[in-house]
TrEMBL record:
Belongs to the aldehyde dehydrogenase family. The active site is at 269. Signal peptide: none annotated. Pfam families: Aldedh. It comes from Halomonas binhaiensis. Keywords: Oxidoreductase. One of its GO terms (molecular function) is aldehyde dehydrogenase [NAD(P)+] activity. It comes from the Bacteria. Residues 32-493 form the Aldehyde dehydrogenase domain. This is Aldehyde dehydrogenase.
């Protein structure tokens, strides 16, 4: 096994990776320029360096790719291939990703600013998802329905057809894997639209997919903007399913596009403003405070399930917040290529300005700024871990998704009050609670309006449990056999016996 790379080794490797970037769209098994010939720049937010000019696809490319995907689907080469054979190809893809793990991790780090250690964690998640879904697909059985002997009734699972996956930039390759693994395993043709802020790892993945033997037209990648190529895919009359991860605002638009076009299925994984509830009965508040800080500052706070609302029982609030501040002190941003950096750079200038705007609003609205609230000198886009205490549910920083390293602390006195505060949100993606009292844990867990609840941890889970939200956090589920089910249709077959 190779030793973990040093800072200097990552810097050296970054130079060679930058010299060999694939920047064209991947359509019908070939890397091609956008039909318009247009490109857009992708930039390293830690340095301001333009990494590449990438093909900027639009509706013409979307039409081309959809026609190719449909042809591939109808050919049956992948869609009717025995599940066990599809499994082998996907496992080969996972092996290739493992072989090129460091390079894929570097692409995400360079493209969107996350620390390399965190990108390596994402690669384990991405590869794990491909393996899990590949291993699952030849263990899915259809049903024989209970009938009298005059009939045989079957319930079959069949792939949907053409799936368009539209993904965000915060975990570029991991979000991609969560979408494409079950969709491909189920036999669909998949068109991936990566975020315009982080297109590079998806294009490298296309190279590996080809090498793994995924047939022509079954997996295609269209880099470009949401309002151009993303919208065209969403409005297409020949896409059967939109699998989306991104903001709630765009999720709502996609539902409209589906209604305006062909009623395609729409699975949404959207935003959050997740409550993390700390009860005073915890034995080890130091440990809980460390987790509470990691829950918001991991990935610079650019995490859909960031624990951005910290609800602390007032009897321990003062001491607890001091402990969170001490933990935050050790999480200052640094060069994403340094394996010791906990936080990296903010993805781009618009996101950076948006976060600083929220910090200004927090101060204006009367919350108490306990630490951070500032950025580091450029050219890189770095914001220090920021903690506001005394936040209320009337403040913008208490309600809206900031998607940056900004923690809002609320106090509460009673369990009922904590539950009411936690549920007072348009979102329902994740919630955490920390307590030693099992009765309380189960009482509160059942009442939290949330797709997932973390008890005495934050972000716990593996490939076996679904990931997704309720309310305006969306309706889809990534990971586990539940995501596999989303990418297939049920077909009921009633066979009359003895009548022909
Ligand atoms: P975004 O909604 O701006 O963009 C997401 C994707 O949608 C991008 O590829 C973008 O190009 C595309 N898009 C934008 N407008 C479009 C349109 N009109 N038609 C079609 N496609 C369009 O989100 P973002 O800034 O990339 O990501 C951050 C958001 O993602 C946050 O709200 C975060 O909570 C959410 N997120 C959710 C999860 C989850 O699992 N629930 C995971 C990660 C991120």
């Amino acid at each position: 096994m190779s030793h973990p790379k040093t800072y200097a080794e990552w810097q050296t490797m970054a130079e060679s990776v930058k010299a060999n970037l694939e920047t064209r769209a991947f359509i019908d098994d070939a890397f091609v320029d956008a039909v318009s010939g247009d490109t857009f720049e992708t930039t390293n937010p830690a340095t301001g360096e333009v990494l590449a000019k990438v093909a900027s696809c639009d509706a013409a490319d979307a039409d081309k790719a959809v026609a190719v995907a449909r042809r591939a689907f109808n050919s049956g080469e992948w869609s009717r291939m025995a599940p066990g054979a599809r499994k082998k190809v996907l496992l080969k893809l996972a092996d290739l990703m493992q072989q090129h793990r460091d390079e894929l991790a570097l692409l995400d780090t360079l493209d969107m600013g996350k620390p390399i250690g965190s990108s390596l964690g994402d690669m384990a998640g991405a590869i794990g998802t491909i393996r899990h879904q590949a291993e699952s697909i030849d263990k899915v059985y259809g049903e024989v329905a209970p009938t009298g002997e005059e009939a045989l009734a079957l319930v079959l699972r069949e792939p949907l057809g053409v799936v368009a996956s539209i993904v965000p930039w915060n975990f570029p390759l991991m979000m991609t894997a969560w979408k494409i693994a079950p969709a491909l395993a189920a036999g669909n043709s998949v068109i991936l639209k990566p975020s315009e802020k982080s297109p590079l790892s998806a294009l490298r993945l296309a190279q590996l997919a080809k090498e793994a033997g995924i047939p022509s037209g079954v997996f295609q990648v269209l880099p470009g903007f949401g309002h151009t190529v993303g919208k065209a895919l969403a409005l297409s009359m020949d896409v059967n399913c939109l699998a989306f991860t991104g903001s709630t605002g765009v999720g709502k638009q996609l539902m409209q596009y589906a209604g305006q076009s062909n009623l395609k299925r729409v699975y949404l994984e959207c935003g959050g403003k997740s409550p993390n509830i700390v009860f005073a009965d915890c034995k080890n508040l130091d440990k809980v405070a460390q987790h509470a800080a990691e829950a918001i500052f991991h990935n610079q706070g650019e995490v859909c399930i960031a624990g951005s609302r910290l609800l602390v029982e007032n009897s321990v609030r003062e001491t607890f917040v001091d402990k969170v501040l001490a933990a935050a002190e050790n999480m200052q941003p640094g060069d994403p290529l340094d394996p010791n950096s906990f936080m990296g750079a903010i993805v781009d200038r618009s996101q950076y300005e948006r976060i600083l705007d929220y910090i200004r609003k927090g101060v204006e609205e009367g919350a108490q700024l306990r630490t951070g609230g500032k950025s580091l000198e450029g050219p890189g886009l770095f914001i220090c871990p920021t903690v506001f205490d005394g936040v209320t549910d009337k403040m913008a920083i208490g309600r809206e998704e900031i998607f940056g390293p900004v923690l809002s602390v609320f106090g509460f006195d009673r369990e009922e009050e904590a539950i009411a505060l936690a549920n007072d949100s348009d979102y329902g993606l994740a919630a955490g609670l920390w307590s030693q009292d099992i009765d309380r844990i189960m009482r509160v867990t059942r009442r939290l309006e949330s797709g997932q609840v973390f008890v005495n941890n934050w972000a716990g889970g593996d490939q076996t449990v679904p990931f997704g939200g309720v309310k305006q956090s969306g309706n889809g589920r990534d990971k586990s056999h539940h995501s596999l089910e989303e990418y297939s249709e049920l077909k009921s077959v009633w066979i009359s016996l003895g009548s022909a």
